[in-house]
Design goal:
By secondary structure, the chain is mostly helical. It has 20 helices and no strands.
């Protein structure tokens, strides 16, 4: 293959689009069919929830870890590895003979979280003239893919069976891995270093302890020895993890970097927006599928409930193409603050007005616009806030914290919704009302953090003052208005 073809930015972008879309789709494809999987494997609701949780946990660890490895050994190599892991995990899931095997397969699929920082890094290293637009579109695919997965799950299950929720991603990611091997150029930017194994283990430890406690609180009792012990273990391991990260020569998540204004602010925003998006998308289908005899709900099928999220997915994707222009004109700060407030208003609407599908269609469309504005803007701010050689780590950190926020959001929402059940065995309507109201409050916290984001207008040419100080030998960048 000639260098001209290998360096073709359109081909590279197409491969990255398939990679990120596949990972995002796999986050949510199984959400509407968890009840069917529960029946298929004769298990309980708590166990089947780990089909989603295990994937998110694995992605939380793999995202920063593989971003760091990609910076050290080559982003193209690790992109091929992560796509191969997605393909293998999908094959395992499609052939899973038991719920335990399926959960293990989802852990393998979660390694695909590395596609996010690797894709961001490849765009920054290889693209010229349209970095901001490419970053915005790729970032928006994370939100769009999650919503689209819920939308397309019903038709796939109805026509092919739920196993094809894994067969189709396996085919797509296997082709994308081969295309990445042939078409994507290897980045010349390298940051050699050792693998941060100990921080990764500690991060996994406190996340598992926290999510187990949150997900099992209603079943075991919030004051039970098991739950309190897990929460205590999570606190201790988290404190130890932070201490280790500040002392090891090669951290998994750079705590020094976390002090940069452009980094910590985007991470707080990403965590809360991920919290809201995963929680709302995870439970809106269940709300719609609830029989109207319960006093709420719409007796919707899997396909019908997925249709409600289609406007959100479309709105989020379309706004991704417009974000670069909006940032150029108004600045990243205003765009992100606006996105968080729109999302907050959407969640408040879901809490207060959910008697008709028209009300929910309006709310989910607004939520898609808001999350699209935020997700497609954050990547550019992060990259402009760190030196070029740390873009993989920084973007991986942001994507990781977003996933962590999403996993916690799903668990918290589950605890709220299932806290009170009616005689028919369905959650009380008040659980959904309280849950969505809490998501709206979370967006207000995200908006407050967004007010501190550096006011970047062109991530391709601008760097924050903090990034310039960390990269003193780089050419003088365009100043950023703060």
């Amino acid at each position: 293959m000639s260098p001209a073809i290998r360096g073709n930015q359109s081909l590279t972008f197409a491969v990255l689009t398939v990679a990120v879309s596949s990972f995002a789709l796999l986050q949510s494809l199984i959400v509407p069919v968890l009840a069917q999987i529960q029946l298929e494997y004769d298990t309980d609701q708590t166990t089947v929830t780990w089909v989603l949780t295990a994937y998110l946990l694995s992605a939380s660890i793999a995202t920063p870890l593989l971003g760091r490895v990609g910076d050290a050994v080559g982003k193209k190599k690790m992109l091929v590895v992560t796509l191969s892991a997605l393909a293998v995990g999908s094959l395992m899931a499609a052939l899973a003979p038991s719920i335990g095997w399926l959960i293990v397969a989802r852990v393998v699929q979660g390694l695909g979280g590395g596609v996010l920082p690797l894709s961001f890094g490849i765009i920054r290293d290889e693209f010229t003239g349209r970095v901001t637009g490419a970053l915005s579109v790729i970032a928006s695919l994370t939100a769009v893919g999650f919503g689209a997965g819920i939308v397309v799950a019903g038709p796939i299950v109805d026509s092919l069976g739920y196993h094809w929720l894994f067969w189709l991603p396996m085919i797509a990611t296997a082709v994308a891995a081969l295309a990445a091997l042939v078409l994507v150029p290897e980045s010349p930017v390298r940051t050699p270093g050792r693998l941060p194994a100990v921080p990764a283990v500690l991060l996994a430890g406190w996340l598992v302890a926290l999510l187990l406690a949150v997900s099992q609180g209603n079943k075991w009792g919030w004051a039970s020895v098991e739950v309190l012990g897990l929460l205590a273990a999570a606190a201790v391991l988290a404190a130890l993890w932070v201490r280790v990260e500040t002392r090891v020569p090669v951290p998994l998540i750079d705590m020094q970097m976390m002090r940069l204004r452009g980094v910590w602010t985007t991470n707080v925003v990403g965590a809360f927006v991920g919290f809201g998006m995963f929680a709302s998308f995870g439970f809106l289908p269940q709300f719609l599928q609830t029989p109207s005899a319960a006093g709420y709900g719409f007796d919707a099928t899997i396909t019908e409930s997925g249709h409600l999220l289609l406007p959100s997915a479309v709105a989020s994707f379309v706004v991704g193409f417009l974000t670069a222009r909006l940032i150029g004109r108004f600045g990243a700060r205003l765009v992100i603050v606006t996105g968080t407030l729109i999302s907050g208003a959407a969640f408040a609407s879901m809490a207060l007005f959910h008697d008709t599908t028209a009300q929910l269609y309006a709310a989910t469309t607004a939520q898609g616009l808001g999350s699209g504005l935020v997700f497609s803007s954050l990547a550019g701010v992060v990259i402009a806030s760190v030196p070029r050689e740390q873009t993989g780590v920084a973007s991986g950190m942001n994507a990781n914290i977003r996933t962590i926020g999403g996993s916690i959001g799903s668990a918290v929402m589950a605890g709220i919704v299932t806290a009170r059940m009616n005689p028919a065995g369905f959650p009380e309507e008040s659980g959904y009302t309280i849950g969505f109201a809490i998501l709206a409050v979370g967006m207000l916290v995200a908006a407050a953090a967004a007010m501190r984001i550096p006011d970047i207008h062109d991530p391709a040419t601008e760097q924050t003052d903090d990034a310039v100080e960390l990269e003193p030998d780089a050419p003088s960048p365009q100043p950023v208005t703060t």
